[in-house]
Design goal:
By secondary structure, the chain is mainly α. The chain is 73% helix and 3% strand. Helix 2 packs antiparallel against helix 4, helix 4 packs across helix 7 and helix 7 packs antiparallel against helix 9. The protein is elongated.
Amino acid sequence: MRSTIHTKEVKVWDPLLRLFHWTLLGSFCAAWFSEDELFESVQDRLSGEYLQEVHVWAGYAIAALLLFRLLWGFVGPRYARFRDFVHRPGETLAYLKAVLAWRAPRHLGHNPAGGAMIIVLLLSLSVTVVSGLALYAADKGLGPLAGLLVAASDGTIDAIKGTHELATHFTLLLVVGHLIGVVWESLLHRENLVRAMITGRKRA
């Protein structure tokens, strides 16, 4: 019979946080795969306007999710709050060194490295969304920023487009880094972190 010390689980991630996590992933994937000029073969089969509509609404969804996460970081349950996982840079670097040495301590909530990744991801996604809205306004004359950028010059449009593409690619790199971190931590502490974000429960 297995010891209850190793099998007892506790609730860590609340339902809204889990819904945010998976909806954000789905929205980012929808925005990425509907990006103009990304898949020419797909665009040959689908209307360019349809793809753009998917891209725009995925961007709006991400914007709404970011606003929710900002609020939830202050009023949500313990493990969703920023004060629970935002650490000083020195603490984060020390934790990363311990991770590479395969001796990092386990955290029930987000560890210092994971917390830092969340903050950088939220900031990168914010830049991606704002630059996307700016590009939509400047290039198409549509969206909430249209009144400010509808008369933008070609140079301004190119600059905004470059910023949006750079932020998008940087966010994708962060997502890959996040996935590597999840696998690494799951192996290090012998627990399935993906399952934990689905069920909300982790080993006590």
